[in-house]
């Protein structure tokens, strides 16, 4: 983890919007996608957890009272039993969750079934993920490129693109598989590994031939990108979404080089292998 002094150096940098995506494919992992189909709670108020029994097909007790729920007019995902609950959740979510004003736009992008199908929305989601880890990923990529030469950052997500793109894990009461008394939330993390094309062929494609389908475009990006301005990124998520692109070095090559040496070391003292980042801690 970067020291506090290192973070202060990079406070509020001007981040250029020069992300460029060259190729994306869907490997179609149906089992993982199916688990996302009904992952958001449509039966309870997102603030007070009051149930709408009419939405429960398994509830045959006609004596139970129901509370009509209204959805957020912006994201059409969050649901509330009253205007008071909606206003309160917009400002501060209960049980340690994040206020809805910080998650509304991202929830609109993924929808109630937590899937992103629009190419533009997929590109935006990938950019958001890289942007969140830029203070760690950029120095790491620059530091490795000095030692290993031209290569790319291989980013593997522990969950689907949709779930990883949310700005925070959802409050437990928002999940159908959890109740309001369960404060356990699914941890989201990314594994970063800097690879040369030779390592990609011998270590990755040998065991995972599906990724070989993006090799040609990956090679073009690695051979042609400006190593002092951007880094090549190969992203893969558990839903089967794979993408190749370039991301800008933030804030610049010189500072990334300095921070990479400070954080990861140089020469024989340099750290080797991959690094894992908890997406909710960066």
From TrEMBL:
<dbReference type="InterPro" id="IPR002893">
    <property type="entry name" value="Znf_MYND"/>
</dbReference>
<dbReference type="GO" id="GO:0008270">
    <property type="term" value="F:zinc ion binding"/>
</dbReference>
<feature type="domain" description="MYND-type">
    <location>
        <begin position="45"/>
        <end position="104"/>
    </location>
</feature>
<keyword id="KW-0863">Zinc-finger</keyword>
<protein>
    <recommendedName>
        <fullName>MYND-type domain-containing protein</fullName>
    </recommendedName>
</protein>
<keyword id="KW-0862">Zinc</keyword>
<dbReference type="Pfam" id="PF01753">
    <property type="entry name" value="zf-MYND"/>
</dbReference>
<keyword id="KW-0479">Metal-binding</keyword>
